[in-house]
């Protein structure tokens, strides 16, 4: 009876210890389950943030494409304006040459008229009977005066055309400057969008969960070191202590980063 009572007491003690162990295990399991649920919630949050980042990335790509097309159209318009400007400059030079030639003809005609008038005066004073020659010279003078008037009208017309061309050149220069400024602003905006796009892509790379292979483990075959080109087992993944994604209770969840075992480069 004493032996049986001792065995019963030992059995009860073992049962008590087993119950305590079971209780502790249950509490640990409950805590682990809660942490797992918190981790799932954090993962859903990260996935939602990843979706927002991808939407922003698509929007930035669309804006860059639009600005690129706009710049191409503006560059084409600038080339057309430059071609028109060259043609206008050539026409301006031609008109200036013609105007200079007309001025020389005008001066020659004016000098010839003065000579003829001088001859008429001399002839009138020396021989009043030479009326026929005087009339001929007078008619020639009248013809030259008509030519001189026509030359003056043509010079006026050429000056008007030259002023018009100068105005057109000024307008085209102003338009080219405006388009050049627009292109420069668009290029600055594209550079800013490209920089933002790179930042978003970097953030997406950091937030994107690891891909799973056929065995359920993260595959590293596609991860390549940008410094030395190593792949596969030469790349290991560690926690980035400088980037905290979330907290599970008081335990921080860090972002991941890759380290090349060959060259030591972190990315």
Oligomerization state: single chain
- When the domains are counted, the total is 2
Label the overall shape: rod-shaped
Average of per-residue pLDDT values: 77
Q: Secondary-structure element sequence? A: HHEE
User: For the report, how would you describe the main beta sheet?
Assistant: 2 strands, antiparallel
Q: Residue share in helices?
A: over 70%
Strands, helices and their partners?
Layout: H1 2-126, H2 131-207, E1 235-248, E2 251-260
Helix pairs in contact: 1-2
Short description:
This protein is mostly helical and 267 residues long. It is built from two helices and two strands, in the order H-H-E-E.
Give a structural overview.
With 267 residues, the protein is mainly alpha-helical. It has 2 domains: 21-208, Helix Hairpins; 219-267, no CATH class. 76% of the residues lie in helices and 9% in strands. It has 2 helices and 2 strands; from the N terminus they run H-H-E-E. It has helices at residues 2-126, 131-207; strands spanning 235-248, 251-260. A two-stranded antiparallel sheet has the order 1-2. A hairpin with a 2-residue loop joins strand 1 (235-248) and strand 2 (251-260). The longest helix is centred in the first third of the chain and has 125 residues, at 2-126. The relative contact order is 0.09.
């Amino acid at each position: 009876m004493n032996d049986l009572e001792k065995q019963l007491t030992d059995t009860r003690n073992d049962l008590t210890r087993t119950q305590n162990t079971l209780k502790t295990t249950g509490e640990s399991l409950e805590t682990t389950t809660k942490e797992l649920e918190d981790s799932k919630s954090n993962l859903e949050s990260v996935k939602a943030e990843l979706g927002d980042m991808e939407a922003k990335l698509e929007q930035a790509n669309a804006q860059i494409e639009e600005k690129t097309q706009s710049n191409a159209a503006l560059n084409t318009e600038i080339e057309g304006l430059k071609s028109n400007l060259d043609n206008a400059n050539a026409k301006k030079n031609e008109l200036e040459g013609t105007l200079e030639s007309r001025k020389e003809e005008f001066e020659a005609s004016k000098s010839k008229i003065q000579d003829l008038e001088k001859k008429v005066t001399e002839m009138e004073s020396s021989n009043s009977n030479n009326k026929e020659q005087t009339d001929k010279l007078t008619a020639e003078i009248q013809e030259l005066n008509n030519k001189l008037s026509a030359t003056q009208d043509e010079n006026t017309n050429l000056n008007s055309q030259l002023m018009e061309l100068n105005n057109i050149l000024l307008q085209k220069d102003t338009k080219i400057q405006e388009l050049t400024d627009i292109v420069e602003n668009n290029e600055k905006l594209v550079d800013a969008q490209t920089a933002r796009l790179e930042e978003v892509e970097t953030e997406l790379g950091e937030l994107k969960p690891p891909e799973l292979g056929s065995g359920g483990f993260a595959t590293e075959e596609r991860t390549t070191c940008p410094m030395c080109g190593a792949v596969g087992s030469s790349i290991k993944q560690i926690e980035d202590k400088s980037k905290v994604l979330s907290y599970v209770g008081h335990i921080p969840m860090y972002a991941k980063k890759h380290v090349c075992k060959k060259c030591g480069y972190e990315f």
